[in-house]
Amino acid sequence: IKITFTPVLRASRETIGLILVLQDVTEEEKLDRQRKEFVANVSHELRTPLTTIKSYLEALDEGGAMEEPELASRFLQVTRQEAERMTRLIHDLLQLSRLDAKNVQFHKQALQPKEILQNAGDRFAFQCRQKGIRFQLSIEDNLSRIYADRDQIHQLLDNLLSNAVKYTPEGGCVTLSAQQKRDGFVEVAVSDTGIGIPKKDLERIFERFYRVDKARSRLMGGTGLGLSIAKEIAEAHGGSIHMESELEKGTTVRFTLPSCEPEVNQP
Ligand code: ADP
């Protein structure tokens, strides 16, 4: 709390009172702290792949790895992976900053959610099969149309589905489902039977760069920004997003999007 005193003076400059202002700066300080943390995180996240690239290139250049073609090709592969990680990170950062600045041009139109969900399902069914994960699609027939930007909703679904695939081991199951809610919203859920998230991490999971296990996320090629982008997109459409999870049992992320024709959905 910030406290300021201002004396109240008579014309004769005699003090006749004091104005005491108590200002709650908790929110302000929180935002300031978050901003500083974000800059520190970005720097760290960019420096880590750069350091790796530099050391592998040095090893190739000076360490004689060039003479061993197999080793050289492995080193080059690592540098390429790290460069790709940086590209993904910068892509995600740019998207977040555009969403933050509210200058994303949303091309919202009336869309059939079923079609979008089936489309996402098709893309991920293949990835799941490759990893030995069962994929289920469960979409209600009576979904009303949503007023949304197709590309943004694709991105939102991609972020959630790619997490579900990433954090679910072979033999598991990923489900994409959707249902009409009575309050004029369509609710979409992405569930998995993967590693889950500890209770203590759940409330911070949508924060930028927040990760349960940094090493695992890096290993999976993650940027730590996927869920925060998903949240921004859902909220920019007038919806909301929530996560439920149980460690070693699985995770469900639900988000809602408003229907175009709310009057049709009234009970
Ligand atoms: P990342 O690029 O690290 O996956 P996200 O923002 O998409 O970043 O997710 C943040 C963190 O939330 C992940 O690092 C992971 O710890 C956790 N997480 C997200 N989705 C899942 C999931 N389906 N199952 C288990 N953990 C998850």
Automatic annotation (TrEMBL):
Keywords tagged on the record: ATP-binding, Cell membrane, Kinase, Membrane, Nucleotide-binding, Phosphoprotein, Transferase, Transmembrane, Transmembrane helix, Two-component regulatory system
Gene Ontology biological-process entries: osmosensory signaling via phosphorelay pathway
GO molecular function: ATP binding; phosphorelay response regulator activity; phosphorelay sensor kinase activity; protein kinase activator activity
Locations listed in the record: Cell membrane
Statement: the UniProt record of this protein carries the keyword Cell division: no
GO cellular component, one term: plasma membrane
Name of the protein: histidine kinase
Organism encoding this protein: Melghirimyces algeriensis
Domain spans labelled Histidine kinase: 41-261
Main localization category: membrane
Lineage of producing organism: Bacteria, Bacillati, Bacillota, Bacilli, Bacillales
Residues of the full protein shown: 337 to 603 of 603
